[in-house]
Amino acid sequence: MNEKEMKLNRYREENKSALPGQIVFAGSSLMEMFPIGKLLSEHNDQTVIYNRGIGGFVSRELLDAMDVCILDLKPARLFINIGTNDLSDSNIPISRLMENYDRILTAVETRLPRTEIYLMAYYPVNYEAAVEGLKECLKIRNNEKIAAANAEVQKLAERHGQKYIDVNANLKDDQGRLKAEYTIEGMHINEDGYRSIYPELMAYVKEPGWK
């Protein structure tokens, strides 16, 4: 059993005691690593947020694991950040990523029509701050490609009548890169980086319902 399967099994068990109608975070490592429980505790915030991110997931894997990561929880609000690993693969065009993303949204809307879905803009990267072993990947998954993908995610949200949100302003330096002080190795975000976007993201978590 690989690490992804172990996490899915753990989430499957945790879902049995989860409360329906709460907030769910779904996606890959950039969502999984969001220390939302710690930040909520620090702010004495009782909001229930289930983080079902799984590191390494591509869009197809989330599509296949939707029951565990999303549907079984019956969320009132769903925040998705999926596709950055697709963007790291030169063999996966943005169009195929968007096809999978579209299928994810359609499945949620069919099964849970009242769930409000937030499609999060992909976070920037910083090639100059990257460790040597990651630089080849960031030549593929660069900020220009991320910007192009974000434009497609925004269109997808509009077509589905859902919300596209971009909470990246505080993460970016004056050149639009992920701030060096907020990255672990050029791509993933450290705790300080997540702290910088927490207030804006929580404003969306707590905004009045729109469905």
Secondary structure layout plus pairing:
Blueprint: H1 3-15, E1 23-27, H2 29-32, H3 36-42, E2 49-51, H4 59-64, H5 66-69, E3 77-81, H6 84-87, H7 94-111, E4 116-120, H8 135-140, H9 143-160, E5 163-165, H10 191-206
Parallel strand pairs: 1-2, 1-3, 3-4, 4-5
Overall pLDDT, averaged?
97
Q: Rg, please? A: 16 Å
Estimate the helix proportion, in percent: 40-55%
- Helix count, DSSP H or I runs of 4 or more residues: 10
Give the termini separation: 40 Å
Unreliable runs, pLDDT <50, ≥5 residues?
none
Helix-strand category: alpha/beta
The total beta strand count reads 5
Shape descriptor: globular
How would you briefly describe this protein structure?
The protein contains ten helices and five strands, in the order αβααβααβααβααβα.
Can you describe this structure?
This protein has 211 residues and is of the alpha/beta class. 45% of the residues lie in helices and 10% in strands. The chain has 10 helices and 5 strands; from the N terminus they run αβααβααβααβααβα. A 5-stranded parallel sheet has the order 2-1-3-4-5. Helix 7 runs parallel beside helix 9 (143-160). The longest helix is centred in the middle third of the chain and has 18 residues, at 94-111. The radius of gyration is 16 Å and the shape is globular. It starts with a helix and ends in a 5-residue tail after the last helix.
